[in-house]
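user: can you give me the structure for this one chain? tokens are fine.
assistant: on it. calling the predictor now.
[tool input]
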Amino acid sequence: MEHLITRDGKEVWLHQIERPFIFEPPFPNRRYVAIVFSNDETVTDAERQEMTRALFSSGCRYGLFAGHACDDWELGLDTACIESDPSYTPSDEAFTMTTSHKDESVESIIFFGLMNTAFDSYDFDRFLILFVGPRAGLHDKVEAAIRSVWHDDHKA
């Protein structure tokens, strides 16, 4: 995992995984936002479900999904949340927000993820940008988007 920036107590980390898509919990005992760029069109439904379950169980409580099959990724995290309770009624503590961002710019996705993901009692201070599979130039676009979003003109 690569630490990209800390600003006002908020940390942004980047991690890229490739097949066999082994996801390790990034922030033990912390709730966090995951901004997932699905770059690998060969990800199977079973692999996607395994990864979204791992995201949920590791503390992801807001998942933003972009790229290939982003709606399926969103559904996967929603399902992981619901299935976390035997009666399919997860607690407030387990509640997880999800959004998909089809055909949106990297800057728009990063802006949403860093600036619009607080809800109820959740005000996240950890953000994981997860690349599932490689995509040329994405790292540079993400870093530029973070600089743009957290420029003083955009600061909340």
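assistant: here you go. Residues 152-156 have pLDDT under 50 and may be disordered. Strands lie at 2-7, 10-17, 32-38, 60-67, 97-100, 126-132.
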